[in-house]
Amino acid sequence: MTSLSTIARRLSVVVCSVLLMVGTFFLSAAPASAASHDIAMGGAKGLVFEPASLTIASGDTVNFAVGQLPPHNVVFESVPGGDKDLAAKLSHKGLEGNGASFSIDFAGAPAGDYSFFCMPHRGAGMVGKITVQ
Ligand SMILES: [Cu+2]
User: Fold this and answer.
1) Å from CA of 70 to ligand 1 middle
2) Active site residue: 21, 37, 72, 92, which one?
3) Ligand 1: distance of its center to the CA of 16 in Å?
4) pLDDT tens string 79-115
5) Which candidate, 98, 55, 104, places its Cα nearest to that of 75?
6) Domain ranges in the chain?
7) Residue 119 is labelled as binding a ligand
8) Higher pLDDT, 56 or 13
9) What region holds the Blue (type 1) copper domain (predicted)?
10) 121 is catalytic
11) Would residue 126 show up in a list of annotated catalytic residues for this protein?
């Protein structure tokens, strides 16, 4: 016959295991502070990004949605430290039409200014800047 103390010992092992699993889950969960922001590509004023400048935190996401006068894209030309690989990684060079949207993830992005433009409409002044704090 199993004694009460054996049952208590087995129960404590189970409780500890559950606590460990729950604790691991919370440690691995993404930080709750990551925010998402919206930029329209082509707004009420025509060939512009709205807003044309935006301040975010590292780890935030920026959602770009096609607005007026497509097609549009987002090409980063100047990023902190002149990191060409980072600029290429963040860029969305594919031209997007009506109803399209995409997100750019600034996870691990160093602080500083990120300037970008829309390739077809750069000459019309369709440029923007994201500042990572
Ligand atoms: Cu454009």
Assistant:
1) 6
2) 72
3) 56
4) 999 999 999 999 999 999 999 999 999 999 999 999 9
5) 104
6) 1-30, 36-132
7) no
8) 56
9) 43-133
10) yes
11) yes
Beta-carbon contacts of 97 under 8 Å, excluding residues fewer than 6 positions away, are 66, 70, 71
Alpha helices for the chain (secondary structure H): 4-28, 84-90
Active site residue 16: no
* 118 in a known ligand binding site: yes
Q: How far is CA 71 from CA 41, 50, 54, 103, 111, in A?
A: 9, 15, 22, 16, 30
Residue 68 has pLDDT above 70, yes or no: yes
How many Cβ atoms sit within 10 Å of the Cβ of residue 67?
20
* CATH, domain range 36-132: 2.60.40.420
Give me ligand 1 centre to Cα 75, in Å.
10
Q: Is 37 annotated as a binding residue?
A: no
Quick one: what percent of the chain has pLDDT higher than 70?
Answer: 76
**pLDDT tens profile 28-43:** 555 557 999 999 999 9
130 three-state secondary structure? strand
123: CA distance to ligand 1 center in Å?
Answer: 10
